[in-house]
Each structure stands twice: as structure tokens, then as C-alpha cells.
Design goal:
Layout: H1 2-23, E1 38-39, H2 52-63, H3 67-72, H4 92-104, E2 109-113, H5 116-126, E3 133-137, H6 142-150, E4 155-159, H7 179-182, E5 188-193, H8 205-215, E6 221-226, H9 241-245, E7 251-257, E8 267-271, H10 273-282, H11 284-287, H12 294-309, H13 311-337, E9 355-359, H14 363-372, E10 375-376, E11 378-380, E12 391-395, H15 402-431, H16 438-452
Parallel strand pairs: 1-10, 3-4, 3-5, 5-6, 6-7
Antiparallel strand pairs: 2-8, 7-8, 9-12, 11-12
Helix pairs in contact: 2-12, 4-12, 5-6, 13-15, 14-16, 15-16
């Protein structure tokens, strides 16, 4: 009876927390993507997850029609891996794939993880020691924050995101007067992303590298770059930002992910052979989890075969054209309608990636309208982004068309018109002594949108 009472109390507590989040407009739900909507939301930038050539290559792997795939499968396990890599989950094919990754990305070694999230946590949690310092971008991914919580490092310092992005005013990236740091007795780990998934901007990695060399001349500065969103997009053949800039020797470790442009799943750390062996011994997200199945490994291998064949270059070229076209359309829309910054604010500079944020005080309203118009975009609100920087996030893909971009821009223009009409009506009602709540306004606006469509 007591146990049942405690369980009921717990459920009530959880329900209260959920209700509070819902009242703040932050309650999350799982949704099944609708196939009837045009995708302007997913991270499948090159549309490789839909590619028939890749699909057939994966089927070839699974059917064992390639001797390499058959001979490298682990103990004939074509489905599950059988355990963690330190027990029974390792395979010759897994290590072959790591050699393929390190060769493609010009790294001494590579170590696979079940996701880039696991790779970040495993790396950050086990490498920095108690006397070391972690410096991180204020907009760094949640996985770095989780890794820092588990890390032995007692000093963690953030720096402003704007200080490492090109074409913005420079501010001091960081400074530390710690004697142990200056003498080289303490290591400093500098964590940045190559391509930021919410803003679509790119780190000025050459600047970061120069600052590290200038401020830490004893060589105790170690740059860690999360390239989860840049792999497949940036650099020759999609090798990433570090390779594009030729900074392989300046960056201590890179975390790559296969669930974005590569159209698969999983992640890896690109590093030295010594660091790889250290992670095998200390990274808990590798040691205490079941290794990836042969199916996952084969899909990653097939994606890299596709990249090295040059076929992906056509997709990158199409994507680059769409990015410029979409920017021009948004710019034209902004110049014609001149919406207030609260309604809609377009990026000022041409985008350098497929991610284009549109800032608005009404992100959920805009996202709903576009979805009603058959275009999938999603609202991004706090705490995913800082409060006051709410937006919808446009993600372009190689499979998108000019006509689809045109349709999306028309939907946004219609939303702006409906929102202006609704706000004018609210102002009139208020002046006449009526009262309209924000919730009433949102429902009324949604109703008008449905009627207009």
C-alpha cells in the first residue's frame, strides 16, 4: 500500500512538472514525419537516406554479394553485434571501417561510437584531468555540456559564440591568468563546432587556431571540433571544415556524425593512435554499450564509398545552388514587405550552409502555417536556443527543387499578411474596449490560415 502511495505521489509530481512545461509552451511530443509534406526540416542535407544507389549498395553488403562484406562480418552475425566491442562486439569489418574513416578524413586513427552524442560525452568526460581547463563556445551542443558534467575538470569557462564566427566584430575569445596554464602544467581543451545546427554559421577555425598558439605557446592547448553537421557538406569531397582549411595538425580531435549529410547513423572520434587507445580504456560510452550492428556499419561504409566515387559532388553542387536561390528569395521578400524584427528577421549575410534560421517572436505560429501549407519546418524555442532568439529553422536538401523553395516563400508571405491583418484587428478591438488574449489570437490566426488555404 505504501509503495502504491509513493508511486502515485511520484506520478503526480511528474505530471505537475509536465503541466508547468506545457504552460510555458515548451512541452515536447514525439511526432511521426508526414510523407505528404515537403521536407525543409531534417538534417538529411544531401538526401542520401533516399538514394537508390546507396540503398542497393547496402543490400549488396547484407546479401554478402561482396566478398569483402561477407569476410568482414563478425562471427556470421549479420543482425546484432553480440556485445560491447571489448567483449564480443568487435569485428574485422568494424576496424576496416575505422581505417577507411581515418584515411578519408586525413586522421591518424578513428574510433567508432554509437552516435556523435556518445562520442562527445565519451571524449570530454574521460580526457580532461582535475587540473585541466575546458573552454567552450556558449552555443556548444548539449552533448559537450553532458560530457563536462561527468568530467574531472573543475574549471569550465564559456566564451561568446560571436567571438569565433567570421564576419562579426571580434571580442576577446578567452583569457586565463592561471599560473599552471601559463607554465604548461595544465591542459586547456577548446571545444567548438564546425557548423552550428541552429544558426547555420561556421567557426573561423583558423582564427581559433591562431589564438590558441598565441596564448598557449607551450603547446598545452588542444582544440576539439564537433563536425557532426559539416561532414558531407564542407571541404573537398565532404571531408569537413578541418580538412577544408588544412588544419588536421592543429586540431587535436574531431567528432564526426553519420546521421546528418551522410544519411546513416552513428559517430566517431578522429584522433591520434594514443588517444584512440586511451578512449578504448576510459570512454564509458564505448566500454559499457553494445557495439553497432553489421547493418549500421555497412550503411556507413556504403555512404563513404558513395562520397569517394564523386557522386555526392553533384548533390553538393545542387545544394549550393539552392542555398543561394533561397537566400535571394528571402532577401526579396524582406525588401518588399519590410516586416518588423519581431515578426520576421532574415539573416543579413548570405548563408554558408543549408541551415537558414528565420527569427520571429511567433515561431510556432509560422511553423504551423507552413505545415498547413504542406511544408515541414519546425519552431525552435528556448531552452534549445537562448530566450529571445526563437526562430524557425529552414534546412535545405539536395532533393529540394526551385518550385518547392518558391512555394515555401509564398507560404511565409501569406503568413505575414495574415498576421498583420490579425494584429490590426486586435488593435481595433482593444481600442473599442475589448480584450483579446494571446491564446485567442493564436487560435483566431490559425483559423484564418486554414480558411485561406
Amino acid at each position: 500500500m505504501k509503495a502504491s502511495s509513493r508511486m502515485g505521489s511520484l506520478e503526480a509530481t511528474l505530471q505537475a512538472r509536465l503541466a508547468q512545461r506545457e504552460s510555458q509552451g515548451r512541452l515536447r511530443h514525439l511526432e511521426i514525419p508526414r510523407p505528404d509534406l515537403v521536407d525543409f526540416s531534417s538534417n538529411d542535407y544531401l538526401s542520401l537516406s533516399q538514394d537508390l544507389v546507396l540503398r542497393n549498395a547496402l543490400i549488396t553488403y547484407l546479401n554478402g554479394l561482396e566478398k569483402k562484406a561477407l569476410s568482414f562480418s563478425s562471427n556470421r552475425r549479420a543482425i546484432g553485434s553480440g556485445g560491447s566491442r571489448l567483449l564480443d562486439g568487435n569485428s574485422a569489418f568494424c576496424e576496416y571501417l575505422e581505417h577507411k574513416l581515418s584515411g578519408f578524413h586525413s586522421s591518424e586513427a578513428a574510433l567508432l561510437f554509437n552516435s556523435a552524442y556518445d562520442a562527445n560525452i565519451g571524449l570530454i568526460s574521460c580526457v580532461p584531468g582535475t587540473r585541466d581547463v575546458i573552454l567552450y563556445d556558449s552555443l556548444i551542443h548539449a552533448s559537450i555540456h553532458d560530457g563536462m558534467r561527468l568530467s574531472r575538470a573543475t574549471k569550465k569557462i564559456h566564451f561568446e559564440h560571436s567571438s569565433i564566427i567570421q564576419d562579426t566584430g571580434r571580442s576577446s575569445v578567452w583569457g586565463d591568468s592561471d599560473q599552471q596554464v601559463r607554465c604548461g602544467e595544465s591542459n586547456v581543451f577548446i571545444c567548438v563546432e564546425a557548423l552550428y545546427s541552429m544558426d547555420g554559421d561556421i567557426t573561423d577555425l583558423e582564427y581559433v587556431s591562431n589564438v590558441v598558439k598565441a596564448l598557449l605557446p607551450r603547446g598545452n592547448g588542444y582544440i576539439i571540433v564537433d563536425e557532426a553537421h559539416s561532414i558531407g557538406i564542407l571541404g573537398d569531397g565532404g571531408r569537413g571544415l578541418v580538412c577544408q582549411l588544412g588544419l588536421q595538425d592543429q586540431v587535436w580531435a574531431r567528432v564526426i556524425g553519420f546521421g546528418k549529410a551522410m544519411g546513416s547513423a552513428g559517430g566517431a572520434v578522429l584522433c591520434s593512435s594514443v588517444a584512440r587507445l586511451y578512449l578504448i580504456n576510459y570512454a564509458r560510452t564505448l566500454i559499457y554499450t553494445t557495439a553497432m550492428s553489421f547493418l549500421s556499419l555497412a550503411s556507413i561504409s556504403a555512404a563513404y564509398d558513395y562520397m569517394t566515387s564523386g557522386e555526392a559532388d553533384k548533390r553538393r553542387k545542387q545544394l549550393t545552388m539552392l542555398i543561394q536561390y533561397c537566400h535571394d528569395k528571402f532577401k526579396s521578400l524582406d525588401q518588399r514587405l519590410r516586416p518588423s524584427a519581431a515578426l520576421l528577421r532574415m539573416p543579413r549575410s548570405p548563408p554558408r550552409s543549408p541551415i537558414i534560421p528565420l527569427f520571429t517572436s511567433y515561431p510556432k505560429s509560422l511553423a504551423r502555417h507552413c505545415q498547413i501549407s504542406k511544408f515541414m519546418i519546425r519552431a525552435i524555442v528556448a531552452p534549445t536556443v537562448p530566450k529571445g532568439q526563437e526562430r524557425v529553422r529552414i534546412c535545405l536538401h539536395a532533393s529540394n527543387t526551385i518550385e518547392q523553395v518558391d512555394g515555401l516563400c509564398r507560404a511565409i508571405e501569406t503568413w505575414l499578411g495574415l498576421l498583420k491583418t490579425e494584429r490590426d484587428a486586435r488593435t481595433t478591438k482593444h481600442n473599442q474596449g475589448g480584450a483579446t488574449t494571446e491564446a485567442d489570437s493564436q487560435e483566431s490566426l490559425l483559423g484564418n490560415m486554414k480558411a485561406s488555404l
